[in-house]
Specification:
The protein is α+β, with helices and mostly antiparallel strands. 17% of the residues lie in helices and 38% in strands. Bound molecules: ligand LBFN2T5F.
Length: 278
């Protein structure tokens, strides 16, 4: 049966969003074929919206076909679609990483309450106990590393954040792809490169686990703000400048929750191409 999709993006981080049953389960090969920018639809993540007894439910897959628990930009897109469909200004929905809530923040702008960051080493997860404010990891010569001691944060998915002004393509791609599969991260990791420009402004580029360098990463932006604030480098609210635009991130002191505000765009619609599940 044909499955329609809506093509969307959040700051250029793009998705195909489908409405399907709770038991819908594409194979890795199918997701990879749909994600392919030369021969498929082309996207960074696939997002599935379902209705169940417990209300709306959202799942995410990276372009490499792996299912993941969280996606910040994708959560804004999913929330906006659900609010448009129901004519509401707020929505709550389940995700594999836990329940989230969202509300409209202007024309095609959405704030998602991303919940509390997970900061214990075993919840990132790391392979061994470490202080997640700055973990024992470095890139480059032992006595003169290029980047070192990244903060580690889970926003429902694992992130490390290096504080550096080295943000050129070659460095981000080379270092990101190396760290993504480092044995310290049993589930892999998203790798952020954050240049703190002021107490309320960070320039961020993210090498995403399972998707590579994207134009923006919402959970990466949340993780960067949390990692920076924990180190005293910024306040608990900042504007994150990503390649595709800006996100406002607030780590609320009263609730410990991280609030992410940014735009969503609809690019078009289509039908998932027939593919073999193998
Ligand atoms: N682009 C996303 C993150 C998608 C998942 C990530 N690549 C992972 O594997 O955890 C975002 O906006 O957060």
């Amino acid at each position: 049966m044909a499955t329609p999709y809506v093509k969307m993006n959040g700051l250029g981080n793009d998705f195909a969003v489908v409405r399907v049953g709770r038991d819908w389960s594409p194979s890795e090969a199918q997701v990879r074929a749909w994600a392919d920018r030369a021969s498929g639809i082309g996207f960074d993540q696939l997002i599935a919206l379902s209705e169940g007894d417990g209300g709306p439910w959202v799942r995410f897959w990276n372009s490499d076909g792996g299912e993941v628990s969280a996606c910040g930009n994708g959560s804004r897109a999913a929330a906006w679609l659900m609010m448009e469909a129901t004519g509401t200004d707020r929505v709550g929905f389940g995700t594999p990483a836990g329940p989230l809530s969202a509300e409209r923040a202007g024309d095609r702008r959405v704030t998602v309450d991303m919940g509390a960051p997970r900061l214990n080493w075993d919840r990132i997860p790391l392979a061994e106990e470490m202080d997640t404010r700055g973990i024992e990891l470095q890139v480059g010569p032992i006595d003169d590393p290029v980047v070192h001691t990244p903060g580690a944060v889970s926003m429902g998915n694992p992130h490390v954040v290096f504080f550096t002004d080295r943000q050129d393509d070659a460095f981000v791609r080379g270092t990101g792809s190396l760290i993504e599969h480092h044995p310290l991260f049993p589930e892999g990791v998203n790798v952020g490169f954050a240049n703190v420009l002021g107490r309320d402004r960070i320039r961020l580029r993210v090498w995403e686990r399972g998707a590579g360098l994207t134009k923006a990463c919402g959970t990466g932006a949340c993780a960067a703000l949390v990692a920076a604030a924990r180190r005293g480098l910024t306040d608990r609210a900042a504007t994150l400048q990503l390649d595709g635009g800006e996100l406002r991130i607030v780590w609320d002191e009263a609730t410990d929750h991280v609030l992410m505000t940014g735009g969503v765009e609809v690019e078009g619609t289509g039908v998932l191409p027939e593919t073999s599940p193998a």
